[in-house]
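Input chain follows. Return structure tokens only.
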Amino acid sequence: MRDYKEYNEFYEFMREYVDFFDVLEKKEEEKLKLLYSREAQKLEELLEEYQLLGRRVAGYEEKREKFHKKLGFGDMTFKEMIESEFATDTAENVEWKERFGALHQRLKTSVNNTKHFNEKALEYAQLNMDLVNMINEGEEDLSCYGPGGEKGKLGGTRPTFLNTEI
């Protein structure tokens, strides 16, 4: 039987880790909104902050691996650890399984949302890069409309949002 003090230490660490991923999720969503709004200065500031967050992720991962080693979880995923450690239905195990299970669900949701926002940001950035490349190449077969609504060719005419300095 494991000392429940170890579970509590691991639980508190994982709660902090999940809280951090909640922050990361919000930052990823903010990044996507800033890309859409074309607020270059704010986006640049957020990307600088992101570098610091990346270092914190590495630190959390290192601590998590130490906990896994200390507690004998090896390469188990968080979900596998929960299922393995609390397989028997004692009152204490049921309580710990519920507590860790709730954390696992929060982490899973936060990670999935973070991935979603990141994928959308990458898609949007790629779309903008493709548009810039087409404009710079002066694609003559692409039709667009001028400021007065007249149909014209793209070559040399830049949409207003591309004139913003980044």
